[in-house]
Amino acid sequence: MKTHNINKIARLWLLLATLITPITGIAEQPDITVDAVIPQGRFVMFYLRNFEDRAFFCSYIRVQATVKDSEGNVAARRSIIARDVSLPAGSLKKQVEAGKDVIKELENEFDEPRIVDISDPKYRCEPKTTSVTIDQKVFRDHLKNGSLGPEMVWISAGRFRMGDIQGGGDEREQPVHWVSVDKFAMGRYEVTVGEFRRFVKATGYKTEAEKGRGCFMYDGNAWNYQKDVNWRNFYFSQKENQPVICVSWNDAVAYIEWLSQQTGQQYRLPTEAEWEYAARAGTETKYWWGNDTGRNRANCADCGSQWDNKQTAPVGSFQPNPFGLYDTVGNVWEWVADSVHPNYINAPNDARIWMEGADNNFRWFRGGSWNDDSNNIRVAFRAGDHPGYNSIFNGFRVVRGSVTADKKAQPKTVYVTTDKKIFRDRLNNENLGPEMLWISAGRFRMGDIQGGGRDDEQPVHWVLVDKFAMGRYEVTFAEYDKFAEATGRKKPDDKGWGRGNRPVINVSWYDATAYTEWLSQQTGQQYRLPTEVEWEYAARAGTETKYWWGNTASHEYANYGKDKCCGVLAKGKDRWEYTSPVGSFEANPFGLYDTAGNVWEWTCSEYENKYKGKEKRCLGKKHAIHSFILSFRGGAWGYVAKGMRSAYRNRFKPVYFSDSVGFRVARL
Asked: What is the residue-averaged pLDDT of the chain?
C-alpha cells in the first residue's frame, strides 16, 4: 500500500485510497472501503463506506502512523486502531475517531506531536448477518461483541385470510378478513432462556416479576402470583434452550430494544397480523398441519407429547411449519405488539400495528401454551392481558423489518415527488408530518468566506456532511398547533398576524426540541433540530456567496427588515410587514424555502464564539441547561439584511423566545 505524506500546507485532510483486504474465513469478499482522513494531525478519522445491502461488523481497523514533533523530527511510529465498529448498509454511514489515546501518550514524551503520514491500512470486517442456510432464508445478526443473535427466518410477502375461517371460535376472531403482508423476518424459535440471560447479563435488567410480586402460576390450591418465582426460578427445570417464561410485554420490549441496539437492525414484536400469517404458513386449517390435533405435533395439555401439561419443551422439539418456524402452536404464549380490540370490525387490511379504537391498557398474545387445551392453540385463537402481566405460560419471539410493522417502529413514508427527494412521514393518526427534503452528502467551506463578517464566523473550515433530510419549510403554526393539541401544551401567541401556514413564532429552544421529540415518537423516525453545520450546508446549497442567490441582499428573495429608501413596504416580492407565509419566495438550489429571512431558526448546536467543533454536534435536551447558549440562524422579518447571510450566527439561552424566532426540523 502506498504511503501518503502530508505537508504542512495541506495537512487538513488526507484521503486514503480505497482498501479492500481479503478476510480469512469469510466465504464471500465483502464490498467495504475504508477511507481514513486526518484532520489537523491530532487523530485519525475513519470514514467507512459499504456499497452492499448488508451491514458489517469490523473487529478492528488499523493503520501505521508516523509521528513528528514540533521541530519536524520523526518522534515515533505507532499503530492507530479502532475496534468493534458496526457499519450499517449503504454508503457513507459511519465515522470513527481513533488515535487520541496514542497522541495523549505521546504528548507526555514529545513537543506537540502530530501524525504526518500513515501506511499499511488493515482491517477485519465481516457481514453482520450470517446466513446459516443455503437459501439464505435463515440468518443471524452479529452483536457488538461478535457473537450471534437469534436465528431468524425471512417470511415472503403475501395475502391471507385472518380470523376463524373454520367456524366454532368466538367473536374475537370475527369477521374473517383479507390482510396483505410485506416481507419481514421472524425468530425461528421462541426467545430462549440462554438468549434472555445474555441480555440480562449485559444490562443488569430485572424483570417485572423480579422487581414486583413474582410470576403468575398455580400454587397447588389457586392461581396466584408467587413472589419467589421468575424467569430464573421455577418448580421445574428450565435449560438454556427452553423458551424464557415469566416475562411481561414490557420485559419483551426491553430485550428487543437491546437487541436492536446491539445489531444495528430494527427488531420488534410482531404485529398480530404478521404473527397469524407466519403461524398459518399458507394454510387455512385450525393448525398448520390440519384440523385435528394429532399426537406429538406440539406441546399443550392434550397434544400427546412428553411435556404436555407439565412444562415447556426445548425449542425446536417438534416439526417446523411450512415457513420453517418452530412452536407457533403451543409451548408458550407469544406476546405481539397490538392493543386489544373486541373483534376484527374495522381492522386494517395490512399488517400494521392496530391501536386505533383499542384498549391500550392490554396487549394480545398468541399461540397457546403447554397448559392449554387444543382449542386454545388454534392459529386464530386470541388472548391478552395488561403489558405488566407475566406467567409461567408466557414468552415471546422477535421479528425484524417490514414496512407494515408497528407504526412507531416502521412508519410509512409518503413520497410526494417523482424523484423521491421530498417526502412526508405518517403520524400515528394517519395524518402527515412536515414536508421533508433529502440533502445529499457533501463537503463545503463553513464560515465567513467573503470576509467582512464577525469574529464568530471564523475560522473558515472545510466540513464533511452526511446525507440527511431537512424540513422544506419552517415549521408552521398549523403543524405546531397539532403537536400542542395532542400533548396538552399551550399554543404560542401569533401576535394577531395569522396562524395556518405562517411560521410558528414565540417558541423557545425547549419548545422546538419538544416538537421534534413528539414528531419522532409519532413517526418512528429520528427527528431533531439541525446542527449548525447541517443548517449552513443546506442554506448555502452549494454556493459560497453571502446569500444563496448572490452577494447583494434583495427583497425579491427574502422577507427581512425594511430598506430606508422604500417607505412603508420594501420593493420586490417582500410585501409583508411581519412574517410571510412559508414558501412565499423562490426556493434555494437544494429546494428549501426561507433559509434567508422570515424567522430565525433554532439549531441543536451549542454556540462558541469561534468554531472549535461544537457546530458539528447536536446538544440533546437532557444535556442542555438554562445557562447554555444555543445557535439560531437565517435572519428574520424585522432584522437587517446582514443577518440573512449564510454565515451569520445568532444565539441565545434555550428559554428565549420572541416573535422573530421559529425553527425547522431535520431527520436522519
From this structure: 84
